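re the bet — no i am not wrong, look at it urself. input seq straight from the record:
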Amino acid sequence: MATLSDIQALLGEPRFNWSDPAPWIELEQEIGIEFPADFREFVDAYGSIEINGQLYLKHPAGHLLHSLGRLISRDLDLWREEDMVEFLPSPVGSDPGELMPVATATTGEAIFLRVPDDPSSPWRVVVQEFDSPAWTLYEMTFSEWLLAYLKGRDVTLCSRNFAPDGPFYEFLP
């Protein structure tokens, strides 16, 4: 299992370090799920950021432009449209087996967390290539998937071209 320390070793020290659970509680009540601990831990540590000039992650306490809640709301609406449903392996939403949109990429990918079929099962990552009907289910937790991405492994997003000198992040403006 990948840890926040493993990610920090590649990405650098976090500078956001959010500790108030209120935005998470509000968002989770609104959408009807409790996000996996590793996802929350990473987003609380780093905040709303762009990794390698490619991957966008947002915090629920972010301002309107960079709010995880706004991203989720917008993307749920998008992926529920009749002509978009065929591009994913299952519906979007908060029920078991459904996909919750949590990140995007400048290269056209959408990153989802797959809600486990039962509470004791791990969350998984699905990456959809927006410019094609292709999607990939990764039998990895969010932290495992992110660590693989930061190491330059092919997890649909590939950072080697975007971060030839190693992973980096910047706060979203």
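see?? The mean pLDDT is 93. told u. also The helical segments are 4-11, 22-31, 37-46, 68-80, 142-150. so pay up
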